[in-house]
Every structure is written in C-alpha cells, then in structure tokens.
Amino acid sequence: MDATDLFLTPGLMDSHVHLGEIPGMTSDQEAQHPDIAKAAREQIPRSYLLYGFTTLIDLISTPRGMARWKSHDIVPDTYFCGGAALMDGYPMNYAPKPQRYQGWLYMLIEAGTQAPEGIDPALHTPQAVVSRMKADGAICVKTFFERGFGDVRDLPVPKLETIREVVKAAHAAGLPVLMHANSDEAHRFGIDVGVDVMVHGLMNWYQEQSSTSEVTPGIRKILDDELAQNVGWQPTIQVLYGLEDLFNTSFLSDPRLVRVLPSNLIDWYRSPDGQWFRTAVSKGVSQNAKLPANADASQLERTVKGELDPAIDRVKHATAYVVARHGRILFGTDTPSSPTYANPPGLNAWLEMHRLSEAGETPAQIFRSATLTNAQALKLDRDIGTVQVGKRANLLLLRQDPTQTIDAYAGIVKVILNGRVLDPSELAANAASDGGALGFLRAPGQDLELGSGRGDRICAVPAVHCRVRVR
C-alpha cells in the first residue's frame, strides 16, 4: 500500500463498551424482530471499525457473550472484564429474581449475607470470583459503587474490605481493577480501596451539595488524591448526551446514523415499540418535574436538558482539572450506557472525542488516550498501542494528523485489522448488505513489514513516503 502523504497510526481502542445487547432493543423485542436484530448484530462490529476502533473492551461480559460477539466475520479485537457486582446491588438489580443470580457468574456475596437458594457462597468470595474470571479469560475486573438513579437511591453497596480483597486478588492474578463510580462518594471509595481505573468522571456531587459546577475544595481533594495515585480516568461524558438525545426530535434524522445503523433498525426506533425507553424515562421526568399530562416534545426536551446539563458541566470541569494536570485519561464511551438508541456504536466514540475536546483535552491527548494509555492500562501494550514491528497489525491510514485535529478520524482512508485491509465504504451500514469484497494485506500467519525505504526506520505519524507491504 502506498501511504505517501498519509498518516499511519495505531488502531484506536474503546476501553468501555457493552456488546451483549442491541442499543435500545430488549431481548424480547429482538426475538420479535429477528430480521432487524440480525442486520443490527452484523453491522455493529463494522460500525466500530468504521470510526477506527480496532480494539474493544467489554466491561461486563462472559465467555459465552464473547463467543456470540466474535462469531461474525469482521469483528474488532475484543477482550472482556468480569463484572463483580454485589448481590442485589447495581447493576444486577435491574434483572428480576431469581434469574439475576444465574446471569451474574461473578456475583459477590459478602460474609454474613444469606445466599440465594442453590447458590454456593464459597464460589462468590472475592478470591473465588477473581479466580474464575482469570480462568475464563477476562483481562480485568469491574467493580461497582452505585446507590442508584432517579427514585432508586437505596441499592446496597459493597463494604470497603470486600473490594480491597477483590483488588488484592486481582492484582495477584495480574488483572487491573476498574470501578463504576460517578459520584464523589464513589470516587472516594475507589481511592480508599485502591482501584486502578475510575469508570465515569465525577458527574454527581452528592456530598458536596454545591450549586456550582466549578471544582470545589472537596472535589479538588478527591481529584488530587487520584492524581497522586495515578488512577486512570474514564470521563464517558457522552453518556449523559445519550439520555438527552432521546428527547432530541431530530436525532433519528441525523444523516450520520445511516452509516452506522441498518435503515430498518432506525425505522424501528421511530415506532412506538422502539420508543419504549424514551417513554419510560419521560414518565419519570414528568413526575419529578410535575409537568402537565399533555406536555409536548419541546417541553420534555427542555426539562431533560435542565436536569442533565448541570451534571454535564460538573464532569467537564472535573475532567478539565485532571487533563490540565496530566492525569491518566483513558478513552472509553460506555456504549450503550443504558437501553438508549442515542449511543450508536462507533459514532458515539466520535462524539465522545468532541466532548473531551470541549473539556480541554487536546487532539494529541485524545490520540494517546485512545491508543497507548488504554493499552498500558489494560496490559495490552506488548501487542497494540503503537506502530512497531512485532506488534499486531491493527492500524489506520488517515489523511490528517490526529495529534493536531480530531477531524482526522473523519477521514480514515483504510482500517487494517490484524493485517486485513478494510475500506470504510465497505464498513458503512448502507454497504454491509452488498457483500462487497474486502481486501487482504496478508494471509493469516504472515508478518506485516513497515519500512520507509530509507533504512529500517519504522513508519509512525506522519507516514510520509511510507510503504506498507507483506514480508
């Protein structure tokens, strides 16, 4: 491949995705619409690649879930974390009993807690859970500190000693520990137990009781402690926009959606069935805001923005504080963050880049966050994260320098996945059904050679006068 005047970079990594469900569609709805679901599941892996994401980390999965995801022909390299949820806590509380206990292989049952019928508590201690994750092929552990959302604010949360034991066992097994934490209380808990990565920026300042979105002394102390411990930070700002955009009447008409979602899925989202989650959220919003029963769409949209915009401002200010002090930012999107269709795969990451830019992260910092920093945090940097002979051939060819502008990712010339050359036009949703031939850079098992034609210097950014060829 002649890469003259193009930029050769590592493929990107989204270190926070959820791949088990189709965004905005329940499992029952999927069963009712098999043709739509089939098209969606075949397209979703391509949509991540379309925006340059050659590596994904599913933060709550199992070997079975990974096998289903990887069954498609074209799939980004995907790894998973085991979700160590506290029994009956977040997020397993959403599933009805007793099914929830069968679905969470890595559930934690604390000492002194009555185990559900048929469940052996000895298999759900911190040590046993981490051991099972490791044996199942997980590369990380995800923990949770969440009291709930909306009207539900009394979910059980783990004890300090429980998660400290999880961290101890995980580190002994060589697994980093990530924690779902979006509040000041949760971040303080994560600091105290010694987790490696905070999943979600500081969106909710419950203990501060502050009316401002500027960083307060209490929030500053939390952030300074995280910086001192070199804790990784996943801001996931786009999560909140994914809820706001449910009420954006023009969202489903965004022309970018047709590149990442099958048209029949978009049409279904417009149907009453496809609007189920919006309807559920709107009921709660209307009750909390005491809106009239006949409130129109624009009134709902303004109300939702009024509720979520303060949290968006807080997380942007907190992220800016961490960025300005060279904190360890990891690029992750939490796609989809909830059963919302407004976190579309691939495109959601592109939107997250813009949110990070608004929060003060430079294009060069975003580039590093989505490549080497992510790879190092998940202990994958021996294989990916930089352009280097001997590493996996997950690469991008771009028209612009991504360290100078995030617009570079809107001009991807080629995506190279494990040496297989993919053209963006063949990855787009409107082309997925054509079965167009996809090129190959090399046969399986062959090495990728990177050479400049001027000695043995490895091509990097920028890859001017660079050729990529099969050895």
Shape verdict? globular
Question: What is the assigned CATH homologous superfamily?
Answer: Metal-dependent hydrolases
Strand tally is 14
Question: What name does the CATH topology carry?
Answer: TIM Barrel
Structural domain count: 1
The N- to C-terminal Cα distance equals 13 Å
Number of helices: 17
Q: Main beta sheet: strand number and arrangement?
A: 8 strands, parallel
Largest sheet strand order: 2-3-4-5-6-7-8-9
- Based on CA atoms alone, the radius of gyration comes out at 22 Å
Query: Which CATH C-level class is it?
Result: Alpha Beta
Low-confidence regions? 432-466
Q: What percentage of residues falls in helices of 4 or more residues?
A: 25-40%
CATH level-two architecture: Alpha-Beta Barrel
What structural category do the secondary elements indicate? alpha/beta
Percent of sequence in beta strands: 5-15%
pLDDT averaged residue by residue: 90
